[in-house]
């Protein structure tokens, strides 16, 4: 049985594991948003950045990609993803049904935000998000790089995210 992973943020442009197939997919019941304070990868404890997370929203659906893990690499991929995504307990690992653009429905591993975690910050106004992203830097680099790469990759694969597009323009204006 194929192991699938749902990518909606950095997994879109930096999966970090061998991908056998990539298909545009929709995850119902969740919204992609900058609702997690990053104290490791894109910020620090003294100056947290923001990273995307799947925030449970029953009336929403998140468009992203379903990544099929190369057969035979499932165990190492799962170990890698857990080390990468579960660096703090802010993300919860879930198996959720996603709808592929070609009509298939598959169960995919997804990392969703724990709304009870101290790093959760859902509902921040876009301007406040832009101010935070424009200055934060973490162990994986500037928060701006994370935003720009994600927004650019969504555009390249034909997905439209108005909030990320607005944030990209605003952050560029703040940093120029």
Automatic annotation (TrEMBL):
The keyword Cell membrane does not apply. The keyword Lyase applies. It comes from the Bacteria. CDD domains: GGCT_like. Gene3D superfamilies: Gamma-glutamyl cyclotransferase-like. GO terms for cellular component: cytoplasm. GO terms for molecular function: glutathione specific gamma-glutamylcyclotransferase activity. Its EC number is 4.3.2.7. GO terms for biological process: glutathione catabolic process. Keywords: Lyase. SUPFAM superfamilies: Gamma-glutamyl cyclotransferase-like. PANTHER family: CATION TRANSPORT PROTEIN CHAC-RELATED, GLUTATHIONE-SPECIFIC GAMMA-GLUTAMYLCYCLOTRANSFERASE 2. This is glutathione-specific gamma-glutamylcyclotransferase.
